Amino acid sequence: MLSPVRLISEAADLAARRHNGMARKGRGNEPCINHLAEVANLLATATDGADAELVAAGWLHDTIEDTDTTRAELAQTFSERVASLVVECTDDMSLPKALRRRKQIEDAPHKSPGAKLIKIADKISNTGGRIQTDPSAEERDDLADYVEWATQVVAGCRGGNAWLDEKFDDAVKAARALL
Ligand code: ZN
Questions:
Q1: Which domain holds residue 25?
Q2: CA of 62 to the centre of ligand 1 (A)
Q3: Which of 40, 88, 137, 141 is the most exposed place for a label (fewest CB within 10 A)?
């Protein structure tokens, strides 16, 4: 097993290479890596640095869904737990979006404690990424739609980390102020 520092450093490096050139969902043309760094940092802060595998999984949480990275590769390079956490945060992209969204709401309460924290951090970052000054009507609709759905997913993930729950509530408040 890699040391905690190496685990996180290798995860950031792999995520940067695999997501190279990809833009994040939401605001402008921000690179995907900004989203991954934010999620990993939220998890590190929420747990006060106590769980390196969780932070590594934060860096890697979109690799299986959005790049050609496999579970086996993550298990071999990092650990079985890191691979499992990422799989738990991976949507089946062969399903239509409406069904994927419904499944996230239904599946959230059955996730492991670590996956629940990653999902909340992901929703905090994705909500923040949709908050912009002077949004167009279309951006406002997208934000309203996202926040309504994310709130339902997070409802099934709450209770494991009070700071993260509060951060999500703050993001929702900031979003609603624009709607
Ligand atoms: Zn994400």
A1: 4-176
A2: 5
A3: 137
The residues, ordered by sequence, that sit 6+ positions from 68 with a Cβ below 8 Å of its Cβ are 18
Give the angle subtended at the CA of 75 by the CAs of 71 and 78, to the nearest 5°.
125
Ligand 1: distance of its center to the CA of 25 in Å?
A: 9
CATH code where residue 155 lies: 1.10.3210.10
Among 66, 80, 86, 61, CA closest to 21:
66
Distance from C-alpha of 76 to C-alpha of 118, rounded to nearest angstrom: 21
- Report field, pTM of the whole predicted structure over 0.85: yes
Give the total number of structural domains in the chain. 1
Choosing from 10, 30, 66, 91, the catalytic residue is: 66
pLDDT, mean of each 10-residue run, the chain (179 residues): 96 98 81 97 98 98 97 98 98 96 98 98 96 90 96 98 98 95
Q: What separation in Å is there between the alpha carbon of 178 and the centre of ligand 1?
A: 23
80 is catalytic: no
Residues in the chain, overall count: 179
55 class by beta-carbon count within 10 Å (0-12 exposed, 13-18 middle, 19+ buried): buried
38 is known as an active-site residue: no
CA dist list (Å): 156 to 2, 41, 76, 105, 117: 32, 22, 30, 7, 11
